[in-house]
Design goal:
Elements (H helix, E strand, L loop, with lengths): L13 E5 L9 E9 L11 E4 L4 E7 L2
Antiparallel strand pairs: 1-2, 1-4, 2-3, 3-4
Pfam families: DUF2196
InterPro entries: DUF2196
Protein name: YwbE family protein
């Protein structure tokens, strides 16, 4: 599933995100979605979410 479509991302989902400070290196952070921050139905760089750990980034992979 694509992390670029808001319909594919929901609370409680296991995802890998890239944080703003790691966009150049592409380092991914795994976690569980707490909040969806992007309002539009899609975004070319990934839907922005907040993880339960408090980290914010754009979804690059949906793991579960």
């Amino acid at each position: 599933m694509s992390g670029n479509l808001r319909a594919n991302v929901r609370k409680g989902l296991d995802v890998a995100i890239v944080q703003k400070q790691h966009q150049r290196s592409g380092q991914l952070t795994e976690g569980v979605v707490k909040d969806i921050l992007t309002n539009s139905p899609n975004h070319p760089h990934g839907i922005k979410v907040r993880l339960e750990s408090g980290e914010v980034g754009r979804v690059k992979q949906i793991l579960a």
